[in-house]
Amino acid sequence: MADEKWSKETFENGYTSGKVIGEPETDNSEWEVRRLEQGKLGGDLEEFFTQGVAPLLSPDYRIVELGPGRGSWTRALFSVITQGEIHTIDLQDIRPWVGDLISKHPNRLFINQVNIGEKQYECLAENYFDGFFSFGVFCHMNLTAIEEFLITLRKKLKKKAICIAQYSDWEKGLKYCETSPGNQYNENAFNILFSKYKFEFEMLRARSPMEKLHILIKKRLQSKYPEPEISSNQCFWVRNDKKTMGKLLKNAGYRIIKIDMGFFKRDSVAIFEPR
Ligand SMILES: C[S@@+](CC[C@H](N)C(=O)[O-])C[C@H]1O[C@@H](n2cnc3c(N)ncnc32)[C@H](O)[C@@H]1O
Fold first, then answer.
1. Nearest CA among 138, 158, 125, 126 for reference residue 237
2. Is the domain of 12 the same as that of 75?
3. Distances in whole angstroms, Cα of residue 32 to Cα of each of 26, 184, 268
4. Same domain for 203 and 190?
5. Within the chain, how many helices (H) and strands (E) appear?
6. Does residue 79 sit in the same domain as residue 93?
């Protein structure tokens, strides 16, 4: 499954979700990126931010953002964090992509590039942050890596800090990507998953315990499914769902406020706080 090396290579030119809130300022390409992202996710990015995220934040909060890429969500966060600080951590050097933010907020934006295998995040002060935000990152991290990251993050957060994180949800993703328009927007990505995880997807598709049993027996009789044709490091959508994420958050020492905010048809976004 996906890992940090894969992420570092795949996103080396920076990833953007477009201008996620407000009118685009430059040209139609910003709209186009946002329209495509919204189609992939099955939800409205601006609605998610203005109705879901913004009300949870205060202007003076200090926020950690994991994996900002080209800064789509960092720009949205600054529209609310008008007095506080945003500290970003990314495997890439994001400076060339967020020059506008560096100029606008020289004393309130702190950019940290981290190495593959980073464990301690010493660039972040302990017991300092009021919030954590991440979009498009946990879906590319192995579950053990998410758990380790969250355990370290906990030390950096104040008690009652608010955390918002998008993650991959195979159950939702499968449903969304089997019908239109989800399948049109996610065709390549999900074709890779469907071929690599045939058994897992058959199990998710099964409507009754009998059907599940039948698939298990078939698997047993065949002893195993044919080897996937693609290499494992190409598979980017980590197997996660609400139940697994719930367990992981509890193990890492968090209290779940909402396991899915419900804004997107493909992915889930959890709200949680340190226990
Ligand atoms: C798909 S992009 C998302 C960018 C942005 N958040 C968005 O939604 O438009 C993922 C970003 O997370 C970064 N990333 C992935 N895994 C990471 C890790 N373990 N630690 C730090 N950054 C990571 C990548 O370098 C990349 O910039």
1. 138
2. yes
3. 12, 15, 23
4. yes
5. 12, 7
6. yes
Ligand 1 test: best mutation among 91, 118, 141, most atoms within 8 Å of CB? 91
Check which CATH number belongs to the domain holding 64 and give it.
3.40.50.150
Q: What angle do CA 158, 161, 162 make, to 5 degrees?
A: 165
Residue bearing the CA closest to ligand 1, atom 19: 4
CA separation for the pair 135, 148 (Å, rounded): 18
Q: Which residues line ligand 1 (CB under 6 A)?
A: 4, 7, 11, 15-17, 66-69, 72-73, 89-92, 114, 135-137, 140-141
Q: Closest ligand 1 atom to the C-alpha of 166?
A: 8
Check whether residue 127 and residue 67 sit in a common domain: yes
Compute, in angstroms, the gap from residue 185 CA to the centroid of ligand 1. Answer: 21
Q: Which residues span the domain enclosing 213? A: 171-234
Q: Digits of tens for pLDDT over the chain (275 positions)?
A: 678 888 999 999 999 999 999 876 666 787 889 999 999 999 999 999 999 999 999 999 999 999 999 999 999 999 999 999 999 999 999 999 999 999 999 999 999 999 999 989 999 999 999 999 999 999 999 999 999 999 999 999 999 999 999 999 999 999 999 899 999 999 988 888 888 888 888 888 898 999 989 888 887 777 655 554 556 566 678 889 999 999 999 999 999 999 999 999 999 999 999 99
Among 203, 218, 234, the domain-final residue is: 234
- Please give the distance, rounded to the nearest whole angstrom, from the Cα atom of residue 106 to the centre of ligand 1: 22
Number of separate domains in the chain: 2
Do 15 and 147 lie in one domain? The reply is yes
Distance, CA 14 to ligand 1 centroid (Å)? Answer: 9
Q: Which atom of ligand 1 has the smallest separation from the CA of 72? A: 9
Query: Are 60 and 105 part of one and the same domain?
Result: yes
Question: Which amino acid belongs to residue 141?
Answer: M
Q: Residue 143 and residue 88: Cα distance in Å, rounded?
A: 21
Whether the full predicted model's pTM is greater than 0.90, yes or no, is: yes
- Ligand 1: which of 3, 12, 15 to mutate, judged by most atoms within 8 Å of the beta carbon? 15
Is the same domain home to 178 and 156? no
